Amino acid sequence: MEGDAPGGGEGLTLLGLWASLFVIRARIALNLKGLTYVYTEENLSDKSELLLKSNPVHKKVPVLIHDGKPVCESQIIVQYIDEAFPNVAGAPILPSDPYDRAVARFWASYVDDKLYRTWVPIFRGRTAEERVQAATQVVAVLQTLEQAFKKCSKGKPFFGGDSVGLVDVVLGGHLGWLYATEAICGVKVVDATKTPLLVAWAQRFCALDAVKGLIPDVDRLVEYNKTRRAGLGLPLLLPYVELQQ
Amino acid sequence: MEGDAPGGGEGLTLLGLWASLFVIRARIALNLKGLTYVYTEENLSDKSELLLKSNPVHKKVPVLIHDGKPVCESQIIVQYIDEAFPNVAGAPILPSDPYDRAVARFWASYVDDKLYRTWVPIFRGRTAEERVQAATQVVAVLQTLEQAFKKCSKGKPFFGGDSVGLVDVVLGGHLGWLYATEAICGVKVVDATKTPLLVAWAQRFCALDAVKGLIPDVDRLVEYNKTRRAGLGLPLLLPYVELQQ
């Protein structure tokens, strides 16, 4: 694929992992810009030399390699894509007004600082109670994001207004795992009775051409979580086994 | 002071705390741009209505209020100052090239993710061992930043090259506390035998007009740490008492 990209995307390679919410963000941003890229799936148990060389500090995916130069960390990659390809298809991911940019960065940062950190024990908690407690906290974080959506979108379809912005991409990357939370620990976190605007936003977001096929199915994430927990020596906790049957 | 600023800085208020490394970053950025601002010292035990209203999500300093609109989170504030005031005195804080911007954001993010998180137990660790272990890890993080300095500065005085950039501002905000670490727990972390380039950089950085007077003295930080530990119900651990006598 390399070299035949429309819109200036030649020389783009993404090192990723299908289940990683951070990788999904980078892929959505590349799609929004209409950029063609080579996607390489990494094996976290046997990381490639290219990954270790490209991200020697964190040794993590995603890494975007553009003309041989690596860019690491998902939010930095999304901003890089927006800044390095300003003249391709698709609206800018960050707004042009400095204050609007600061607000977008604030909520994008909130997703990483609060939503992701709160959610992690659902993935790798040691007890069922720990997972349920985390899921309850995730609902509270999403309720804050519901208010943020109200303010940022101003009645329009996305956090970015009429088009998808940084917060949409960053939060959107989480959707698969948020949907999977009910199967994993029995708590529905994407819940129209608690966060109706976010639930409607999530449906709109997942229906976008740039997003289709990137948010993994719940069943696949549940199986992945079981495998990862086994690999980490963690117990296979109920209720997701019950729900799967 | 409000209203008489040179260079377009009218209507700027910063809610801060003298000892906060995050607040220091914002103040350095404002100074680099030559902006005049009203500085309001907050009392963390009795936060102002303005702080609670301006940063309802985190309730933390710094908050920059520009023409009535709040900007929160130190790295977002620094970027906001750079983007909202492009035509005032001082070189841009972020480089113009998208790849160079991504690299600057990567190392700035590394300072928050690794240096700050590693350093926290020095401030509020429960045992002397915990503090010493944290200090040892801080040295390792600084050694990684030494290598980053070599690559980013390319033989010039700052991470940003000839002028101060995002990484300089973000890491520079930590310097007071890094210097104070030896007094607090007996481990010298700013050590010319281990990170000679960073030590020389720190001296250059602290000598800048935009920085002078903002990096607190070690004695004052040590006293502040004692008071905060007492407030948090933490034991007053050696060796900083010994060193102070």
UniProtKB/TrEMBL annotation, chains A, B:
Gene Ontology terms: biological process: glutathione metabolic process
Q: Which reaction does it catalyse?
A: RX + glutathione = an S-substituted glutathione + a halide anion + H(+)
Do you know which InterPro entries this protein is assigned to? Glutathione-S-Trfase_C-like, Glutathione-S-Trfase_C_sf, Glutathione_S-Trfase, Glutathione_S-Trfase_N, GST_C, GST_C_Tau, Omega/Tau-like, Thioredoxin-like_sf
Question: Which SUPFAM superfamilies does the annotation name?
Answer: GST C-terminal domain-like, Thioredoxin-like
Per the database record, which ranges form the GST N-terminal domain? 10-89
Keywords, comma-separated and alphabetical: Transferase
GO terms for CC?
cytoplasm
Which EC numbers does the record give?
2.5.1.18
Q: Which residues form the GST C-terminal domain?
A: 97-229
- Pfam families according to UniProt: GST_C (PF00043), GST_N (PF02798)
Tell me the GO molecular function terms: glutathione transferase activity
The record's similarity note reads: Belongs to the GST superfamily. Tau family.
According to UniProt, the name of this protein is glutathione transferase
